[in-house]
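Two entries, shown back to back:
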Amino acid sequence: MSKEIWSPLLIALIASMTQAFGISLQRRSHLVIDASIPLYKRPMWISGFLIYTISNMIGSTCTIGYLPIIILAPVGAIGLVFNAIFAKWILGDPFTKRTVFGTAMIVVGAGLVAGFGTVPEPNHTLKDLIALYKRPSFIIYFTLIETFTCIGLFSTHLIEYLMKVRPNHWTHPDLKMWLGISYGVFGANISSQAMLFAKSGLELLILTVFQHDNQFIYPLTWAIVFALVFTAVLQLYYLNRGVQLCDTIILVPLNFCSFNVSCLFNGLVYYNQWDRLFWWQVIAVLVGIAILVWGVLVISLQPPPISLSENDDIRSMASSCSQPFLKAASSLDEDGVCLKKPRWWTRMKSICRREEHQPDENTGLLTSI
């Protein structure tokens, strides 16, 4: 590895870590601060938002401009590891064996998606970009994608609104999580469009600065810049909405996967790169998506840690009476979570009391008065 790569690689890793830190701060702000307080009055949320945004800008500049594709995939996957670490440290999410296993699967899947889902493309002039925009295949594809995104976001907003207006009719315990996932996935799709505009704008900027061929004298160039700013702000908005409703350890990997897959297909259609994509790359990306989603399911479907508070003493005693020698009542569950275990004589006393107050089998009367 050449010396020129070490500096941008280190910056990209630090940016990846600080992005995970910033998005975890935003999630914690939504959890511990009253929702009625505006976001601009929450120092924790503002700090997390600024950390994430600045890190994203610096990291994107280093990864796009200075790092080869073979290094981009591990950097993106390591960012998901940072996300799991900060979810434990800042948000207090359980870090069990299932979490470790699921995170490892997410890292492997993300590496496959990012490593094999990128196709290099040379720079283009504005005339080339206009010709690419005018292609019927891109117009049809872009129309379908935008229609699907608008319908999906409208449906998500509508369900969230109905959940607030009629909370008794929308009582599924995981509904908020699925709404957050929807915002995150569609926000990643918008982010992939922002990346497309950013790549187009960067090509025009390189031609203007280094080849002295000014591309910013055309109105369409500024339209691309406006589309870049609009989609970048919009994807940040929906990412924040997703973080507000869903845990980062679930949302961020799905957002990462959706972003990379959307970027892949956007590039294939927009730059007409189908002849540059090999069949084994498609298979590797599909396998990576399956592994990543499987890892997310492993994490999201794990049972919450059981803890018995003082207010639950009555219910815990009833449970111990009905199943006094159940193995699940041991001091440690399979994930290493400590549980309060009633002593053996306490369980025996509860069993005896229950038997004393049960009717006799023959007479139907209580055996003790």
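entry 2 starts here
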Amino acid sequence: MENHEQSKIGAKAHTVLHCIDLSSPDIHPSVSLLKQACLDCGFFYVINHGISQEFMDEVFTQSKRFFNLPLNEKIKVLRNEKHRGYTPLHDELLDPDTQVHGDYKEGYYIGVEVPEGDPESEKPFYGPNVWPAPDILPGWRETMERFHQEALEVAKVVARIIALALDLNADFFDKPEILGEPIATLRLLHYEGQTSDPSKGIYGAGAHSDFGLITLLATDEVLGLQICKDKDAKPQIWEYVPPLKGAFIVNLGDMLERWSNCIFKSTLHRVLGNGRERYSIAYFVEPSHDCVVECLPTCKSEKNPPKFPPVKYGSYLSQRYKDTHADLSIYKK
């Protein structure tokens, strides 16, 4: 493994991640493997997660159908203030200290469906989704709604293993205020084939850590995702995460690092384009709006007191999105 900064796109140091088999009847090896992954880098694969390869392929096919639409069609479902809908190229700026432009990717947000008129729809990130017209993309909504539901079930299984790895009850994260009423967001992503150049501040996605509990990521076969296991290293060492057919790449978010009092890691990652089109599907799993995140009882002691004050999750997440996304008013000019 190379131990220098991967400054050129041609340098391809690869990391090796632990692989968690969700179909295993004995959960203890999975808990042990996951705990080691969370202490090491906060990234791991999950396989045999219950979503068929045939359906995964269909979700990717439908994603490509949307991104292949003309821009004037995609703009009809532009991201709204609830973070639902289409995000154009450069809409997101994840690493303003190093990026010259925003990310060289376009995306599509799909959240928890809450009908207008429901009091819950007044909350940030809740409300009705924005959908392409069914005559333009027949069956598209149904595919995405099904995937949203199935991915949430996978996330809940992973969260139970995380709870056991933190010496909590397995159902700790199943509480109504955590994953009983989660902010769960599906995001389709398309990288158009730009070649990234870190020396010029050009990235598919700038360096960042995710905001919430965990993220499930499905990717095509194109290499692009990199992780930096030690963000404080000088220089930083970046390693590629190889795609694994049929698997989710799972990473921990900042809120789980905060919950665990920094015992588990939320790791810096980015995407470098290599001139090839790349598609991925991210599923961000967050606790409910009203969840108060404070140090877990198993993660603090007299010698290791809580490092962070309690925080209400909905307010925290709204600020993180505001900090990283373009103001919607720019699209009205």
